[in-house]
Amino acid sequence: MATAMTEALTAAEPVDLLAKFDPIIQTREQLLAAGVEDPFNLVMEQVLSPTRAICNGRDTILLGTYNYMGMTFDPDVIAAGQAAMQDFGAGTTGSRVLNGTFRDHRDVEAALREFYAMDHAMVFSTGYQANLGIISTLAGKGDYIILDIDSHASIWDGCAMGNAEVVPFKHNDVEALEKRLKRVPEGAGKLVVLEGVYSMMGDVAPLKEMVRISKAHGAMVLVDEAHSMGFIGEHGRGVAEDQGVIDDVDFIIGTFSKSVGTVGGFCVSNHPKFEVMRLVCRPYVFTAALPPSVMASSATSIRKLMHGGNKRAHLWENSRTLHKGLRDLGFELGTETPQSAIIAVIMPDLERGAMMWEALLKEGLYVNLARPPATPAGMTLLRCSLCAEHSAEQVQTILGMFERAGLAIGII
Amino acid sequence: MSPADVDAKIRSLIEPFNKKGIAIEDATTFAGDLEFDSLTVMDFVAEIEDEFDVIISMNQQAEIENWGQLVAAVHKLQDS
After folding, report:
1. Is residue A6 scored above 60 in pLDDT?
2. Residue-level pLDDT at A10
3. Predicted interface score ipTM higher than 0.90
4. For A61, which of A136, A197, A247, B41 is 20 to 30 Å away at the CA?
5. Which residue among A168, A179, A378 places its CB closest to the CB of B58?
6. Quick check: helix, strand or coil at residue A59?
7. How far is CA A169 from CA A34, A81, A329, B41, in A?
């Protein structure tokens, strides 16, 4: 009997579990066969500043790094990290709930409470994990998650990891949200998940209306403010603050890997029972805490962002100048007006998008090439994110590069 | 609404999405036969939800592959 089974097993054809990705391998090979530099394999050999690096051997202006406030090279941020690494070592080797909470993990959570003027703050190892953990833990079996169809992958993955009913609505459509809220069975728990700035097109959500309607229907509201921290709203707390509804938002999710300039994710809340999340949220419990150097750098950066008024003003000036300049050159943009520090340039298709991306790289400019499934409506985008450290001259240089590349590829 | 009425109603809703005019039977699949992508699915589902005043969650959508299953699911939802 045992022999027979062994024979049957060795005779079976192995199924290649990677075969399902063959179409993606083909698309990529076609792109590279056309002679295009690989958009998803760029190496920064040296990073010279928040806005300049040596990429694939070329001196390059960085216009696709989400380093909005340019904190990566801030001397105080670096010094705080160096001191913490010296004093506390290179890593934590443990979960936050066991041996992974050091002085600076507590301090960065205090800095977040100060920054947002909220009662509770919980730090995760990445922004992705913050969404994954908070959403999957909050909404359980029988609850409803109502979310914008253009939500970030981390939000969708948080939905997939939990057991709640998942109900998407059309992007930024207040009426579509309200209809769905009305149809949720009476007594069911409801979590509405929104973003302040949607990172693909750089557009802002109508949070004022959406939060009001959500609360009127008894829903709890979570807003991801990853792309607004530090420069939208009076205190840089994001779109919810800017539109005057931050007090009605139950949970704000954010990240350290954009304006803060380090890595990590967080959730802040005024909910009196929020601290229980530390015990029940699996992506918080079952992973190692961030290194102390990252925590010390982050805490310093967050506190400096509270006083970044001049940098904020310059970032907005850069965004307006680039938006107007690109429009005047004849590019199609994701938004009519500059709404954030992201400006999306819409490409006619993936092939020309990749050619344009490469032409810009050869000019000495790095932008993000974004394509389906990350983008809405199957679009190919060249996504530009501005930095407060881009000089006015750099923005003019960038416009010149776009003009030459756009003419060469035949997009303008 | 009877299953036949539900069928007729959704048949009128799917028309603008059925660009190739494919003949629809119970076994007709949305992803395969009708070549619906995720955006088309979202718009089509929204039309049905608005018409019948129901929610078809993504969890429920995952169980619906063909026309017959959709009609049965909507018939059940509007009764509950």
Report:
1. no
2. 65
3. yes
4. A197
5. A168
6. strand
7. 39, 42, 35, 12
